[in-house]
Amino acid sequence: MKYIPSIAFEEMSGSAKGVTAAKVKSRKYIRNRGYGGSTRTSYQASVKAVFKQLSQAWKGLTNAQILAWNAAANTAEGRSVLGTKGKISGCNLFMRLNYWVVYCGGQIMTAVPTLAGVEAPADATVVLSSSAMTFTLADIPSDVTNLKLIIQASEPQGNGITRAYSKAAAFGDPLTPVTTAINIKSDYDAKCGAPSAGYPKVFFRYFYVNTVTGEKSGEKMVSAVLSA
Known about the structure:
Blueprint: E1 2-3, E2 14-16, E3 19-24, E4 27-32, H1 42-59, H2 63-73, E5 77-79, E6 85-87, H3 90-103, E7 124-128, E8 133-137, E9 147-153, E10 169-170, E11 182-183, H4 185-192, E12 201-210, E13 220-225
Antiparallel strand pairs: 1-4, 2-3, 3-4, 5-6, 7-8, 8-11, 9-10, 9-12, 12-13
């Protein structure tokens, strides 16, 4: 709750005890102090652990190796959360590629890999019922030797939600691409909880990762609704 302070508090700012003094568009106010939650999921903890490992590995590279990553980054482009293109640093490139290599069970690359790109996966169909949740790709590449399929999903959403792809997070191990149905229910339910009549919708994002180079394909999206 916000309170308009008196003139005696005109220059106050910051937090003390249980309140915060702030100013927005020249309007001063005092509100109850907010405290961020400290809960972290096991997935968040594991991601943090991987990046800590990669940060230490980057610091251990030789000067020549760092220069090589910086040079490779000059020809690479990243995308911000808004979808705009931007240049990335050698450290960024090292982190991005090695994250997926390590995530898929590989060892940290100190040398820059030869990048060739990864095509986005084909359309997928998800069948969702009280007893099953299957994910089926319409097609797969002719050679999937170094490819893994990563599926991310939102927690069950209510009927009023029409788009929640941004809430999708990983819930299972990397998968080998196949054209047969993959049963993902046990992994999904263990992390997100089973969909129900009140929360029947699930939104998925999925993509391929090259386990040797760490390259990630473009993402595809699909949603499913719990059948009666």
